[in-house]
Amino acid sequence: MASIQRLTSPLTGRTSYRVQIRLKGHPALSETFRNRKDAERWGASNESAILEGRHFPRSRAQRITFVALVQRYRETTLADVSPSRSANSERHIAWWMHRLGGLTVAQITPDRIAEARDALAMQPFTRARTPAGLGTSPPTYKRSGATVNRYLATLSHIFAMAAVEWRLVDRNPVRDVSKKKEARGRIRFLGDEERNALLAACARSGWPPLHALVLLAISTGARRGELIRLQWSDVTLGTPSPQAIIQDTKNGEPRRLPLVGKALVAVRGLEATNERASRFVFPARSGPDRPYTAFDAHWYAALATAGITDFRFHDLRHTCASYLASQGSSLLEIADVLGHRTMAMVKRYSHLAQGRKTTVIERMTKARGL
Q1: Of residues 152, 151, 146, the one with CA closest to residue 183
Q2: Is 5 helix (H, G, I), strand (E, B) or coil?
Q3: Pairing mode of beta strands 124-126, 29-33
Q4: For residue 16, which of 38, 42, 44, 48 has the smallest C-alpha distance?
Q5: pTM value surpassing 0.85
Q6: Cβ(149)–Cβ(180) below 8 Å
Q7: What are phi and psi of 289, to 5 degrees?
Q8: What SS3 state is found at 125?
Q9: Quick one: angle between helices 110-122 and 83-100, nearest 10?
Q10: In this structure, what DSSP letter does residue 124 have?
Q11: Region 192-365: CATH code
Q12: Chain segment 238-297, per-residue pLDDT in tens
């Protein structure tokens, strides 16, 4: 059974707690903690693990490298997920590999992860490289609390798989690391004058398809990755229902995007000028068999030309939702357009749909004679 001993340093007077586990047929385990609750948790967890055959000696963790752990995760877990989710995970993994790649699993402790978490939050980054001669530089950012937490979630999943399914380690150290505080969902959308100025700047862009891409983002609320990877095989431009089908979505379910108005005209224009017969609606300049994912410099140039600040491409999605809310669309309708499975993400637009709420209540009171 686990026993806990209270220790007091004769030099500093600081109190600590040493927990020891002695079970017949198993080597003794011992660890020291600063508070009793952590000692009790460690003792109960490891004692249960030994009794259930889930405990692994620390020496094994000292032999397994983080690189090997990541390699197995890539070959197994990531091999079965969608391309968009895999791309996000790979971006997170690349950062953790840079930070922890030279360590063994035993060396990746909660305090080391917490230190890396704080460094990640403070590290400035840009979302694009500027081609020579374009005349604009992309802005720099610091990662939000929500973004840092997504990086932690990926690392935690790697260790969870190693502990629960592969039985390579005995615990997930990320579970002992606190998450960053997440700010309330950002709502930044284009006013009418800003929208007109941006579309005019996009129409004069050095990359002409940018105009159609921005129109699609505003009209459909689709995500950047969903639009930029759109293929002609998933687009129908004939009557009566022009549409695009997004096959690879964040929630894993295909979503239909109605094509109407200026967005439909712009996509038809792209089809007419698809000289290289690319399968992608927005092909890369380096070759027609890849989507043009690195268009950021042209996007930032258009923002600068339009005089628009504090705006990201993802805010075009907020713009679509905000326009829908202000036109009287219900939150359920907005969630359907954006492809959200739950209502939690669209509640941020509820204050813009007050007119709709008033109309619904007035209709009910009139029908019931209230």
Answers
A1: 146
A2: strand
A3: unpaired
A4: 38
A5: no
A6: yes
A7: -95, 10
A8: strand
A9: 110
A10: E
A11: 1.10.443.10
A12: 878 899 999 888 777 889 999 999 999 999 999 998 866 789 999 988 877 889 988 999
Q: Is 259 helix (H, G, I), strand (E, B) or coil?
A: coil
What gap in Å lies between CA 169 and CA 105, rounded to an integer? 8
Cα torsion 175, 180, 181, 186: sign: negative
Q: Measured between alpha carbons, how far is 280 from 230 in angstroms, rounded to an integer?
A: 6
Rounded CA-CA distance 57/75 in Å is 25
At 229, list the tokens: 């990877």
Alpha-carbon distance of 81 to 253, in angstroms, equals: 13
DSSP state of 139: P
Residue 113 reports pLDDT greater than 90: yes
CA separation, residue 169 to residues 51, 99, 164 (Å) = 16, 20, 8
pLDDT of 100: 94
* Element spanning 302, H or E: helix 296-306
Query: Quick one: CATH architecture of 61-176?
Result: Orthogonal Bundle (1.10)
Residue 176 structure tokens = 């002992």
Chain centroid to CA 160: 19
Please state the φ and ψ torsions of residue 336, each to the nearest 5 degrees.
-65, -40
- Give residue limits of the domains in the chain: 2-55, 61-176, 192-365
Q: How far apart are CA 81 and CA 71, in angstroms?
A: 15
Cβ–Cβ < 8 Å for 138, 127: yes
Asked whether 81 and 89 are in contact (CB, 8 A), the reply is: yes
Residue 11 CB burial class (10 angstroms; 0-12, 13-18, ≥19): exposed
- Sequence-separated contacts (24+) of 324-332 with Cβ below 8 Å: 324/221, 324/349, 325/349, 325/350, 325/352, 325/353, 325/356, 326/352, 326/353, 326/355, 328/353, 328/355, 328/356, 328/359, 329/353, 329/356, 330/356
Q: Which tokens hold the place of 99? A: 């930070």
Residues annotated as part of the active site: 223, 250, 314, 317, 340, 349
pLDDT tens digits, one per residue of 174-192: 998 999 888 766 678 899 9
Q: Which residue stretches of 8-144 are H helix?
A: 36-51, 58-63, 66-75, 83-100, 110-122
Residue 338 Cα to chain centre, angstroms: 16
What tokens does 330 get? Answer: 């219900």
Token code pair at residue 192: 């009418």
